[in-house]
Amino acid sequence: MLKRTYDKVNELFEEAGGYLPARELLANKITTIQIRSMLQDGKIERVSHGNYWNLMTGRKKPKHYKMIEACMTNPKAVICALSACYYHGLITEEPDKLYIATARTDRGGMKLTFPVSRHYFSVHAFSDDIVEKRTPSGIIRVYDLDRSVCDCIRLEKEIGHDMVQLVVDSYKNSKKKKPKHLLEYADRMRFGKIAREYVEE
Description:
By secondary structure, the protein is an alpha+beta fold. 46% of the residues lie in helices and 19% in strands. It has helices at 3-15, 22-27, 32-40, 65-73, 81-87, 123-126, 145-154, 156-159, 161-172, 179-188, 192-199, and strands spanning 19-21, 44-48, 51-54, 78-79, 98-103, 116-121, 130-135, 138-143. The strands form three sheets. A three-stranded antiparallel β-sheet has the order 1-3-2.
């Protein structure tokens, strides 16, 4: 490939914050053969089907890049439970897998380069309490603080009692907590009794 082509691609990536979907490259007359060549030469990295990260500048991926890549792969997905609690600062160590919520009717693929724990919600429950954060590199869709803690309680069997307790203890010390909101959501999801055992003890 010619240097001016690399320069053009590099500029496109940088304008977009480091990530680009294949459709944007194709729209700017970068061919599939050229995309394949850049992948083979280590100029770009495939982060999911049809989405790429620029390696030519040597810049590090942004904070919460896994969340950005998940929301890029499926624009309707929402970061939930333990990963959302990490985003909100309730825990300091990033979970070993990314917790993602989608509606039960959403069967879109979520093939990413890191482990994912995907959870399906009814359409109504899925759409509640979503916060959308715009970053220079992409959008993060995440559940709010109270719902995130509540979902950790609901997923105790997967997350583990000790980790859920750590999340709840941190939540109790948060100035942003709204326990009434948390319990209202728990009641709608029919596990209010269990949530109260954690939050009100």
